[in-house]
From TrEMBL:
Keyword Ligase on entry: yes
The protein, known as: Glutamate--tRNA ligase
Domain of life: Bacteria
Assembly behavior: Monomer.
Residue ranges of every copy of the Aminoacyl-tRNA synthetase class I anticodon-binding domain listed in the record: 384-442
Lineage, broadest ranks: Bacteria, Pseudomonadati, Pseudomonadota, Alphaproteobacteria, Hyphomicrobiales
EC number annotated for this UniProt entry: 6.1.1.17
GN (gene name): gltX
Domain Glutamyl/glutaminyl-tRNA synthetase class Ib catalytic: 6-307
Length: 446
């Protein structure tokens, strides 16, 4: 296989979410694995709704995921090549002017349905004479432009779905240019794919029905048709489609919430495939797990809880070197011993700051049995302390008081940390140190 050139083509009309991350990652990691090129193409021909701030945030989001594009293209800067393609299609008779209003088309559609006919455009505009067109334009009508399909069974081999076909006689000739001269999605997308030499179009399965039309436009423009692959869409656990209105699932929000990009990438790529969903820390490894032949045909359900579980699993395996800079940025760099002590109790790296407070203080100790805690305080071993100190100390307290099990450990944990749960005190106690431990056991904030 020649090196692939693929693209991710969002509209910068809002922030992208985890559902958008799925095709972005599938394309970028496929190109990465095969030594290809990943293009970010902004479909921003809707100048009123497209905003540069959203485009900028998308680039930040992709960089955060670890998949910065090799090339960035903006459709708003490429109208000249779209105009040229329109002229060519008109000259060859594949693009024709239509003058019906939206209301007239809707009335015609309802009439066809009432007669038991498929509600497709009847090509009435092709029967207009030049004089009739002049008269319509004199009335103030401006044409929209449709691509005339060749009615046939359009066949292609889909990377995901295998042998696929659509009978184009069941489709209306698609509108490519609106009355005001602006373009719908289809034409600029195809012209860009041709110009950028896109080899593979990997996208959501909601585009399957568009493929037959697009194949014919590629061919009409004399271009090689790319390989198509339609991956299943992400839905919520209740089956609702993901959309930009679910703001808390935007990549920006997930990043700001302290989630790891590898957790988002692992779930977005593996869910809905034959691979078990698991935390994959390395993007090269994740790329090797992509197998288009083994992606389910059913929608893939995104479970937000699963995302947080993957995040925790990643953190529990992270080395100190991987987080050292981030710990320092939050003034919580207690060294490797601190990180290894607390990482198993973290859901997010940012939570480390709370445990650094527990170690360094000041905290308010919780004393539930003054006499028992005083006895334990008197038995504290001398410095230096290490990971064996907790066992040595608690065995001495048990022997002196006769108290064991939870009744022994819980009062000490509450006094030393102010919390009922947390990291193993065998690792935490040396970090707290003799001075703070003695003060806390005495009931003092330290």
């Amino acid at each position: 296989m020649s090196k692939p050139i693929v693209r991710f083509a969002p509209s910068p009309t809002g922030r992208i979410h985890i559902g958008n991350a799925r095709p972005a990652l599938m394309n970028a990691l496929f190109a990465r694995r095969e030594g290809g090129v990943f293009v970010l193409r902004f479909d921003d021909t809707d100048l009123a709704r497209s905003k540069r701030e959203y485009a900028d945030s998308i680039e930040v989001d992709l960089a955060w995921l670890g998949i910065p594009p090799d090339m960035v293209v903006r459709q708003s800067e490429r109208f000249e090549i779209y105009d040229d393609a329109v002229a060519r299609l008109r000259d060859m008779g594949r693009l024709y002017a239509c003058y019906e209003t939206a209301e007239e088309l809707e009335f015609r559609r309802k009439r066809q349905l009432a007669r038991g006919l498929p509600p497709i455009y009847d090509r009435a505009a092709l029967k207009l004479s030049p004089d009739e067109k002049v008269q319509l334009e004199a009335e103030g009508r401006r044409p929209h432009w449709r691509f005339r399909l060749d009615h046939r069974n359009e066949v292609w081999h889909d990377l995901v779905r295998g042998p696929s076909h659509v009978d184009t006689s069941s489709l209306s000739d698609p509108i490519l240019v609106r009355e005001d001269g602006t373009y719908l999605y289809t034409l600029p997308s195809i012209v860009d794919d041709i110009d950028l030499k896109i080899t593979h179009v990997i996208r959501g399965e909601d585009h399957v029905t568009n493929t037959a039309v697009q194949i014919q436009i590629f061919e009409a423009l004399g271009a090689k048709v790319p390989i198509f692959g339609h991956i299943n869409l992400l839905t919520t656990t209740s089956g609702e489609g993901l959309s930009k209105r679910l703001g808390h699932l935007s990549l920006t929000s997930l990043r700001e919430a302290g989630l790891e990009p590898q957790a988002v990438a692992s779930l977005a790529v593996l869910v809905g495939s034959a691979e078990s969903v698991r935390a994959v820390a390395d993007l090269d490894e994740l790329a090797r797990l992509i197998d288009f032949d083994h992606i389910s045909r059913s929608p893939a359900k995104f479970d937000e809880n699963e995302l947080y579980n993957l995040n925790a699993r990643l953190i529990h395996d992270m080395s100190y070197e991987a987080v050292k800079t981030r710990l320092a940025a939050m003034d919580a760099d207690g060294g490797e011993a601190f990180w290894l002590a607390i990482r198993g109790n973290l859901a997010k790296v940012v939570d480390a700051a709370g445990w650094w407070v527990v170690v360094r203080g000041p905290i308010t100790p919780v004393i539930v049995d003054r006499a028992f805690v005083d006895a334990a305080c008197n038995l504290l071993p001398p410095a230096p302390w290490d990971t064996t100190t907790w066992k040595t100390w608690t065995e001495a307290v048990k022997e002196a008081t006769g108290i064991k099990g939870k009744a022994l450990f819980m009062p000490l944990r509450l006094a030393l940390t102010g919390m009922e749960h947390g990291p193993e005190l065998a690792a935490l106690l040396p970090l707290i140190g003799p001075e703070r431990a003695r003060a806390r056991l005495s009931g003092k904030a330290a």
